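Narrative of activities, Objective 1.

The group set out to show that a structural description can be obtained from nothing but a protein's sequence at a throughput compatible with the screening campaign. Below is one input-output pair from the validation batch, recorded exactly as produced.
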Amino acid sequence: MRSGRTVDEFGRQNNFAIEPQVVVAEADASWGFHDRAEKLNGRLAMIGFVALILTEVALGQGLLPFLASGLS
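Output recorded for this entry:
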């Protein structure tokens, strides 16, 4: 990160003018936001959505009413 002092046109110090350097995760990184993680997240979301639809078809009602009926 750069150091130094930045002032505006009125001579006031601007503490937020220096921004940190942006680092992009490499494609082979094992963590962080990258294409492989985003694809996995999307695929798992699709699997969960299909599982929810199949559960509703099998039970004949939504998942929340089914869980609520089991608790009472």
